[in-house]
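re: that chain from earlier
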Amino acid sequence: MITLGWVTLLLLVVLFAGLPVAFSLGSTSVLLIGLFDLPMKIIANTMFTSLDSFVVIAIPLFILMSRVLLDGRVGDDLFEVMNVWVRHLPGGLAIATILACAFFAAISGSGAATAATIGMVAYPAMLERGYEKKFILGLLACGGTLGILIPPSIPLIIFGAVTEESIGKLFIAGIIPGLVLTAVLIVYAIYRSKRGGYMPMEAASWPERFRVTRRNLWGIALPFLILGGIYTGVFTPTEAAAVGLTYSLFITLFIYRTLKLRDLPKLCLDAVGTSCMIALIITGALLFGRVLTLVEIPQRLTALIIEWKLSAFMFVVAMNVLMLFLGCILETVSIILLTVPLVAPILVTLNIDPIWYAIVLTVNMEMALVTPPVGMNLYVINGLDEDIHMSEVIQGVAPFILIMAVFLLFTMLFPPMSTWLPSLMK
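^ sequence. v structure.
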């Protein structure tokens, strides 16, 4: 009789053989289908139905919007706005960097895109002002993780697609935790800046602040358009992605004029590559999940949890420990798609709020983005400059990982932080 342990071992063998995650999940599923003599039509049916979803359409739209904003250098403008308002404070540039990351997170949905966009402008500015290099690298890598917590968030879309939870509620649930984590990072940045003796810059005049802010109002309005439309029910998250993409193209092509029509084919091809990678992982993971369901692995796991009499909180703690381990060897989309199909029935059995669990999972995935050896943001920040070494990035993120671990515990202990706003939605 096959057990979850044997399935896990089989999957790990295939993964460490060097196959990409999507093909590892798919090939393991095919092996299990053959082993248990399951109908082969499962493969075609699952591949079609996994992507035939109105919710999943939001993913390529948000990815394309993120590329438009990245190539249109909207992040530069956001950093400039934040800088003129806070540069006179202790650690002003560090604060501006975190605020710019938070603001760009609210329009991109991607941790890597947030780190890359803000990093390109903030890294040289902070280095020039004498900030410690490792502190800058850690700040940018961890500030970029806000991209998957503050809505819109691609991991939350994937969670909603798998569990059929409301994407709108998942998005709104990430707002307060995202703002709290932003505030925590700002407090730490001020502390490090004071201890490091980083001198604040001269305060901007009020006319300069208003001039810079007014010039960039088009970009500032984007997160309010997306989140406001979702929260008020004017449009669905997928429609919000389409509206956001259209608006982004409009401001970068015709208002800021940072993009040209000739730039769009390459930009679209880059976005298609990322979208196809995610689509393949979704297909492979959902096929894997369906096969496991047919061989009754989730049912046995649920029975085992009941037999052990684990409380809801202890189960969530155990899952977080597992995901911290997985975060060291897999990227975020793969972890979510690998674990959520197994966990979803247990959430129902233990009466765990899936909205709260989704936010806890996302905070854990933020840590995965900066955990070596495969943390995506580590490689993004390492690629900002040829003089940056990976060892410096890893040393820089170490204190931030501790901060995020404490914040993860805080998120687990105080569910209302994640569930209050969604409870107000109609």
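The two ends are 47 Å apart (CA to CA).
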